[in-house]
Amino acid sequence: MALAFLPAEHIAPTFAVLQQSITTYNDARLTELAQYVDETWVQSTTWPPQSWTAYKETVRTNNDIEGKH
Description:
This protein is mainly α. Helix content is 49%, strand content 0%. Helix 1 packs antiparallel against helix 2.
């Protein structure tokens, strides 16, 4: 969940390291989740990391009211 706070160019390499560490758990559900995140968010052409990173953003939420609490 913290990937969004990294610079866009660091997201894919950091996620790759996380994916490699998942193999030690040998959990099919966790592997499926990692594949989903990789395909849907990290490698996506629809929502590339540049569009969802919050790195150095002053408002880091899509709900402006939430940021005031």
